[in-house]
């Protein structure tokens, strides 16, 4: 067996015993991708905050901010994943005596694995805060829809000076009702009216005895007849119902908009991640080819003897 054949069989033995995965190169590429992703995300946050203004008709719009966020996320994934894949492909070991298709597959796998590790690291560091923000927004929207009417009625009570601390104040007030209400202070009268309105709005209707009692209070303070006072009560109660319905509708629309924004953001994040995986694999194949194209230079060292004098 000559020296060339001996080297060939030794290389074949090494290629069958060594693993086809260069984890050192993969982790190096993943670290580079995760670090660059963090830098670009922070830069995107800075640019986004600088473009937003609390003043009306100034700064970027909500739609423009959403589009720019999606574009920046896709850019971040492409650039960071491409860099990580290229490093993983360039730093992996050189596979000798192997078919080109197998080398191409291994380079692609190295880029994809580098993207996977970087994505998992980024998700561990960032996804917790992002999910808490998204989940908090969705939960807030659900609570806003469920308690819109209650919040509106509480706002009515707050405007009238009621602290809403007495949950059973309505029933306590009913103990002292009379066909001809006694003269009380304006604050006391408004507190009684507020409690009646709050309970009626929560139930969805104004009871007949409450309507009559409210009309008596209004007539006592405005010198209106009982019939005119009842009409005024009906008008005010109808306007209050409309305000509560408008508040509930606005809350539902806001929750629906938030849900749509969350859905579209999630879908575009999915597309951006797929783009990152593709470019990581593509860059790894390019880096692997550059790695295999490296030519090792051999230099001979000559020792020159000093001349004899």
Fold and architecture overview:
The protein is mainly alpha-helical and 309 residues long. The chain has 2 domains: 21-139 and 265-292, no CATH class; 150-247, no CATH class. 78% of the residues lie in helices and 0% in strands. The chain has 9 helices and no strands. It has helices at 3-17, 23-51, 62-91, 100-146, 148-159, 169-175, 186-203, 208-222, 226-292. Helix 5 runs antiparallel to helix 7. The chain is rod-shaped, with a radius of gyration of 37 Å. The two termini are 50 Å apart. Mean pLDDT is 76; it is low at 155-165.
Give the tally of β-strands.
Answer: 0
Distance between the termini: 50 Å
**Count the helices. How many?**
9
Helix content: over 70%
Number of domains: 2
Structural class: mainly alpha
Taken in chain order, the helices and strands follow as: HHHHHHHHH
Question: What percentage of the residues does DSSP assign to strands (E)?
Answer: under 5%
Transmembrane segments: 21-49, 69-91, 112-134, 267-287
Keywords: Membrane, Transmembrane, Transmembrane helix
Protein name: Transmembrane protein
Organism: Pseudomonas laurylsulfatiphila
Secondary-structure map:
Layout: H1 3-17, H2 23-51, H3 62-91, H4 100-146, H5 148-159, H6 169-175, H7 186-203, H8 208-222, H9 226-292
What's the gist of this structure?
The chain folds into two domains: 21-139 and 265-292, no CATH class; 150-247, no CATH class. The chain contains nine helices and no strands.
Highlighted features:
2 domains; transmembrane; single chain; Transmembrane protein
């Amino acid at each position: 067996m000559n020296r060339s054949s001996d080297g060939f069989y030794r290389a074949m033995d090494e290629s069958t015993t060594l693993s086809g995965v260069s984890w050192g190169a993969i982790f190096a590429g993943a670290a580079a991708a995760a670090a660059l992703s963090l830098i670009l995300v922070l830069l995107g946050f800075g640019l986004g905050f600088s473009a937003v203004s609390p003043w009306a008709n100034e700064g970027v719009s909500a739609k423009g901010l959403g589009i720019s966020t999606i574009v920046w996320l896709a850019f971040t994934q492409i650039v960071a994943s491409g860099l990580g894949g290229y490093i993983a492909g360039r730093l992996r070991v050189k596979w000798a005596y192997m078919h080109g298709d197998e080398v191409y597959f291994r380079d692609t796998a190295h880029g994809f694995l580098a993207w996977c590790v970087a994505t998992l690291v980024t998700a561990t560091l960032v996804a917790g805060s992002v999910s808490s923000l998204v989940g908090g927004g969705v939960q807030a929207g659900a609570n806003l829809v469920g308690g819109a009417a209650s919040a509106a009625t509480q706002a009515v009570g707050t405007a009238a000076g009621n602290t809403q601390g007495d949950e059973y104040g309505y029933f306590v007030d009913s103990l002292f009702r009379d066909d001809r209400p006694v003269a009380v202070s304006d604050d006391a009268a408004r507190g009684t009216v507020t409690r009646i309105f709050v309970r009626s709005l929560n139930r969805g209707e104004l009871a007949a005895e409450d309507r009559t009692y409210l009309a008596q209070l209004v007539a006592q303070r405005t010198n209106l007849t009982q019939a005119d006072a009842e009409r005024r009560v009906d008008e005010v109660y109808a306007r209050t119902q409309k305000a509560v319905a408008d508040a509930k509708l606005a809350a539902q629309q806001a929750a629906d908009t938030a849900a749509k924004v969350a859905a579209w953001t999630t879908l575009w994040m999915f597309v951006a991640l797929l783009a990152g995986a593709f470019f990581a694999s593509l860059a790894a194949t390019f880096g692997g080819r550059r790695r295999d194209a490296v030519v090792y230079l051999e230099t001979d060292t000559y020792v020159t003897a000093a001349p004899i004098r």
